[in-house]
Amino acid sequence: MWLLSRQAVFGSFIVCLCMLGIGLIQFPKLQKLLDSQQVTSLEILEKDVKAENLRLNFLKKMPSFGYDNLIADWVYLNFLQYFGDDEVRAKTGYNLSPEYFEVIIERDPRFLEAYLGLSTSTSLYAAMPERTINLIEKGLKSLSPQVQEKSYYVWRYKAIDELLFLGNSQAAQESFLMAAKWASQFSDEESKYVAATSLKTAEFLSQNPNSKYAQIATWAMILSNQVDKYTRQRAINAIEALGGKIVTTPEGAQKVIFPPKD
User: Fold this and answer.
1) DSSP readout, 209-243?
2) pLDDT at position 64, please?
3) Which residues cross the membrane (predicted)?
4) How far apart are CA 16 and CA 56, in angstroms?
5) What radius of gyration, in Å, describes the C-alpha atoms of the chain?
6) Cβ-count burial of 173 within 10 angstroms (0-12 exposed, 13-18 middle, 19+ buried)?
7) Residue 19, SS3?
8) Which residues lie below 8 Å from residue 259, measured CB to CB, with a gap of 6+?
9) In the chain, is it the N or the C terminus that has fewer CB atoms within a 10 Å radius of its CB?
10) Contact 202, 183 (CB under 8 A)
11) Taking the model in full, what pTM does it have?
């Protein structure tokens, strides 16, 4: 009986050893197959990006037959899908962001809702703030307080890029002044607030071009918008690095605490 038991144990050991040997032999082949699939997948994704780039270039030039706004809306929905695919963007990057932006500016420069997401994606994710500013300047040629309500926000987006991503405080000061000028033409509370804060930031920049207070205030403007988690955390980190603090009020809102004025 003991002999049979020992034979059974020995037989099981031999089976396990054989399975382990087969596994060790097959592992390099399996790893090679997985690596091949990953490479193929990346190649396919890159081909998709190139195809999308060609499509966007075509949309920049094709006749609209009077449907410019419809094309801009459709392209913006495509951009949201593109931007929201974190897994794919981690592999291929965000280099198409300004291409979406350009199509929309060409087709509908008064599409205010598109400016925030596209400027953030182009400047912060694709690291192309110069391209953002060029496209915003192009869009501003078709905007005015009389033409489009709340178009003063576009000047604010431009100022944010100039100050935080290009370090051009002089240009940012001028953009904040324009935002204040346009916002002051409206009497609602939101416009009054934008006019006051934009003017205040411009004044800080005129007194101290390297003002940490002004930079914190600008990052706080980003926090006040409906931005994604990455952008929100980037803003919080920047505010804390500049000496500010983020506190949560009893109501659950986040408030920026400024350091002593510089």
Assistant:
1) TT-HHHHHHHHHHHHTS---HHHHHHHHHHHHHTT
2) 81
3) 6-27
4) 57
5) 27
6) buried
7) helix
8) 212, 213, 216, 242, 243, 244
9) N
10) no
11) 0.78
Instruction: Name the one residue in this structure whose structure tokens are 């009497």.
Output: 187
What are the pLDDT digits (tens) for 32-89? Answer: 433 444 444 878 888 888 999 999 999 988 888 889 999 999 999 999 999 999 888 9
Place of tokens 């703030």: 129
Residue 200's CB is within 10 A of a number of other CB atoms, namely 15
Helix (H, G, I), strand (E, B) or coil at 247: strand
Name the H helices within the chain.
2-61, 68-84, 86-92, 97-107, 112-120, 129-140, 152-160, 169-183, 189-207, 212-223, 229-241
Half-sphere exposure of 123 (CA within 13 A, CB side): 27
Q: Which amino acid does the sequence have at 140?
A: L
Paired tokens of 30: 């399996």
Domain ranges of the chain: 45-142, 145-210, 211-261
Average pLDDT over residues 128-151: 95
Contacts of 42 (CB under 8 A, 6+ apart): 91, 92
